[in-house]
Amino acid sequence: MRGDLRALVFDLDDTLIRTYDDLIVPLEREAARLMLQYRAEERQQESGGAARPELPDCETLAETLLHYRRSDPAGLRGAVGRQVPQLGAGAWEAREKLFRNPSVSALRRMPGVRRMLDELRLHYRLFLLTHGFADFQQRKLDKSGLGRYFDGVRMVARSREKGEALAALGPALRLQPAEIGVIGNRLDVEIRMGLALGCFTVWVRSGEGSEMPVGQAGGRPHEVVEDLSVLAGLLGCKG
Questions:
Q1: Which residues fall within 8 angstroms of residue 216, CB to CB, at 6 or more apart?
Q2: What H or E segment, with its residue span, contains residue 91?
Q3: 3-class secondary structure, 60
Q4: Do 228 and 205 touch, CB atoms closer than 8 A?
Q5: pLDDT by residue (tens digit) across 38-52?
Q6: Per-residue pLDDT tens over the stretch 133-181
Q7: Residue 125: how many CB atoms within 10 A of its CB?
Q8: In this predicted model, what pLDDT tens digit does every residue of 93-131 receive, in sequence order?
Q9: Other CB atoms within 10 A of residue 21 CB
Q10: Which of 35, 38, 153, 238 could anchor a disulfide with 128, C-beta 3.0 to 4.6 Å?
C-alpha cells in the first residue's frame, strides 16, 4: 500500500513538535497547583458538615493528569474526576484557562524533523492538518518554522473536524484514499480517521496518547514509529 502513496498528511502536536514535553508537562504541573489552591479556597468558605476526603498533594495530582494525557486524553476529565471527585467545576475552569493562550517560547521541533521533511517532499506532496484554537496552533507552527514544507495547512477547531477535512483532501487532489498517508500521534483521532477512510497510517508513539493500547481506538495503524527520522526509509524513499 505504501508504494501507492502520493501525498502525506501530518499532524502537528507531538508529531512534528514536542508539545507534551515542552508545553503540556509544565502546564499540567501548574494546573495541579491552581486546582488544589482553588479547592482549598472553596473549603475555607464552606461551613461544618460531614468530614471531607483529603485532597491529593500537588505532585500526585499532576502525575495523575499527565498519566491520562498519555493513556486516555479524551477521557481525562472524567477519569480524574472519578478519582478526585472533590475537585469541582471551578477547579477545572482554573485548569482550562491555563491552556487557552500559553506561551510557546519553550517549544521545540522533534529531532531530525527538518531533514525528514526535506527528504519526503522530494517524493510526496506534504500537508499539515491540526486541530485546536487557530491562533494557538498558528503560533506553534510559526515557532517551529515548519510551515514552508507544506503544500497546504489546515487548522480546525475540533478533533472530529479532522475527519471531514481529511475526507475532503482526496477529492480536492484527485487522489484515492490509498494514495494518502496519515502520520500522527493520536490513535483515537487522525489514525482512526485515516483507517476509516482507507488511508495508509503511521502512528507516531509520542507524548499525548502514547500509552493508548494499539487497536483500542478503532483499528491498528499500518506502521508504528517512535522516531520520525526512520519515516523516509520506512516509506521506501531514502536515498
A1: 187, 188
A2: helix 89-98
A3: helix
A4: no
A5: 888 776 666 555 556
A6: 999 999 999 999 999 999 999 999 988 899 999 999 999 999 999 999 9
A7: 17
A8: 999 999 988 999 999 999 999 999 999 999 999 999 999
A9: 16
A10: 153
**Strand partners for 224:** 203
Q: Any residues with CB less than 8 A from the CB of 191 and at least 6 apart, and which? A: 182, 184, 201, 203, 217, 218, 219, 221
Which residue's entry shows cell 514552508?
Answer: 148
Q: Grid coordinates representing 226?
A: 517512535
Closest CA to 210 of 4, 55, 21, 10: 21
Show the cell assigned to 229. Answer: 527520522
Integer CA distances (angstroms), 99 to 19, 25, 81, 93, 143, in order: 12, 12, 18, 10, 17
Q: Give the DSSP letter string of 183-206.
A: EES-IIIIIHHHHHHT-EEEEE--
Find cell 491552581 and name the residue: 34
User: What's the CA gap between 116 and 156, in Å, rounded?
Assistant: 25
Q: Specify the amino acid at residue 163.
A: G
Contacts of 129 (CB under 8 A, 6+ apart): 9, 10, 11, 154, 156, 162, 165, 166, 169, 190
pTM: 0.92
Structure letter (DSSP) for residue 129: E
Residue 77 C-alpha cell reads as: 476529565
